[in-house]
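Inverse folding, one chain.
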């Protein structure tokens, strides 16, 4: 699942309403191709369908109280020492919630990820990014993917993390390197919140598109 075509050997593709532009150039000397994807504009939802408005404060943040994990003493704590996690909801066409700290361990992502994903603040669930901004224009993230679990890399997660960092004043707009467990991508965020994703691509698998691929959702097939 992490480095191949999927556990079952096939997977569905859902196309939303936003237009995504993809430009591929290459190949490079190492055999990889370079790709740039224009992802549209980032939004910061404060209500349906992605976020319960009652959970969002005046700054557009969601604060959750979660069970403690050893080593998280640097986080703000409640009266009984649970962990207080502050999240920035982000939409890149799909829901994300970004938490910032000096660092995050795999154990913390595995422990907190499902609790945040299924929290009442996110009625449809959410992808979660555990982010740390380092010196220079770099940000490291661990990813908990909605309905999947901890994931090595994700393009929309990278975009959401950079947008949240800019929203929080941790980074200025521009191009940022995003370090993920599966590799590094570059995200470019403009001042109008338009975001694009840049990095190398390699062939993972070959396949066949289903006959109805590309038809609008709910469209009826004409003819036989």
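Residues assigned per position:
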């Amino acid at each position: 699942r992490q480095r191949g075509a999927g556990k079952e050997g096939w997977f569905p593709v859902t196309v939303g309403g936003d237009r995504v532009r993809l430009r591929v150039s290459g190949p490079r000397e190492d055999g990889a191709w370079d790709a740039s994807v224009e992802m549209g504009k980032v939004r910061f939802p404060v209500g349906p369908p992605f976020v319960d408005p009652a959970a969002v404060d005046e700054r557009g943040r969601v604060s959750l109280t979660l069970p403690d994990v050893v080593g998280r003493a640097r986080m703000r704590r409640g009266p009984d020492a649970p962990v207080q996690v502050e999240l920035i909801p982000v939409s890149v066409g799909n829901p994300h919630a970004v938490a910032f700290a000096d660092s995050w361990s795999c154990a913390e992502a595995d422990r907190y990820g499902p609790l945040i994903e299924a929290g009442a603040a996110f009625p449809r669930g959410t992808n979660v990014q555990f982010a740390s901004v380092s010196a220079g224009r770099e940000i490291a993230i661990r990813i908990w993917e909605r309905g999947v679990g901890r994931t090595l890399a994700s393009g929309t997660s990278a975009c959401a993390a950079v947008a949240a960092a800019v929203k929080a004043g941790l980074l200025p707009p521009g191009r940022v390197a995003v370090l993920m467990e599966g590799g590094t991508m570059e995200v470019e965020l403009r001042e109008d919140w338009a975001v694009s994703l840049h990095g190398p691509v390699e062939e993972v698998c070959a396949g066949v598109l289903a006959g109805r691929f590309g038809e609008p959702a709910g469209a009826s097939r004409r003819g036989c």
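Residues 40-201 form a domain with the Diaminopimelate Epimerase; Chain A, domain 1 fold (CATH 3.10.310.10). The chain is about 10% helix and 35% strand.
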